[in-house]
Specification:
The structure is a single chain. With 157 residues, the protein is an alpha/beta fold. It has one domain (2-156): Alpha/beta knot, CATH 3.40.1280.10. Helix content is 40%, strand content 22%. It has helices at residues 14-27, 49-61, 82-94, 112-117, 133-149, and strands spanning 2-8, 32-38, 69-79, 99-104, 120-123.
Length: 157
C-alpha cells in the first residue's frame, strides 16, 4: 500500500522541515510514503474563505484517483489513540487499499467538495495545530503506527 500526505502550501518553519525529513526517512523502511505539496491559489489573500477552500479543493482533487481511500485530517474527525491508529492502518492494508491518502487542508479547512470525496476523517487532537505543524505530527504518528504494527520498541520509549 502506498501512503500519501497531501498538503496545501510549503512550510516556512525549518524545524518542521527537519522533523518531517527525519520521519520521512524512517518511514521508507515500512511503506512507500510520499508528500504532495499543493500550491496555494493565486491571490489567495484576496479571496473569501469559501472561495479559497473551493480553489484548494479543486487543486487537491486533481491529485486523487477514484480508487484512492481519502482521509481528511480534520477537527471533526474521529480521534484515535496511537494503537487504534495502527489498527486503522492495518485494516486498510488488509482490505487491499492501494493508495491511502491523508489530506491536510489550508488554514481555513476544507470545502464541502472535499468532505463529499472523503472516505474518512481523522482528528489528531481536540487542540488546534497549524496546518504546517500537522505534517510533522502526522509523520511521527504514522511512523509510530508502523512500529506498533511491527512490535518495535519506539512506541514505548
Amino acid at each position: 500500500m502506498k501512503i500519501k500526505l497531501v498538503v496545501v502550501g510549503q512550510t516556512n518553519m525549518k524545524f518542521v522541515e527537519a522533523g518531517y525529513s527525519e520521519f520521512f526517512t524512517r518511514l521508507k523502511h515500512y511503506t512507500d510514503f510520499e508528500m504532495i505539496v499543493i500550491a496555494p491559489p493565486k491571490n489567495s489573500s484576496k479571496l473569501e474563505f469559501s472561495e479559497l477552500k473551493n480553489k484548494e479543493a479543486e487543486s487537491i482533487l486533481t491529485k486523487l484517483l477514484p480508487s484512492d481511500f481519502v482521509v481528511l485530517l480534520d477537527e471533526k474527525g474521529v480521534e484515535y489513540s496511537s494503537m487504534e491508529f495502527a489498527a486503522f492502518l492495518q485494516k486498510r492494508m488488509n482490505s487491499g487499499v492501494k493508495n491511502l491518502v491523508f489530506v491536510v487542508g489550508g488554514a481555513f479547512g476544507f470545502s464541502e467538495k472535499m468532505y463529499e470525496r472523503a472516505n474518512s476523517k481523522l482528528s489528531l487532537s481536540k487542540m488546534t495545530f497549524s496546518h504546517q505543524l500537522i505534517r510533522l505530527i502526522f509523520a511521527e504518528q504514522l511512523y509510530r503506527a508502523f512500529t506498533i504494527l511491527r512490535n518495535e520498541k519506539y512506541h514505548n520509549e
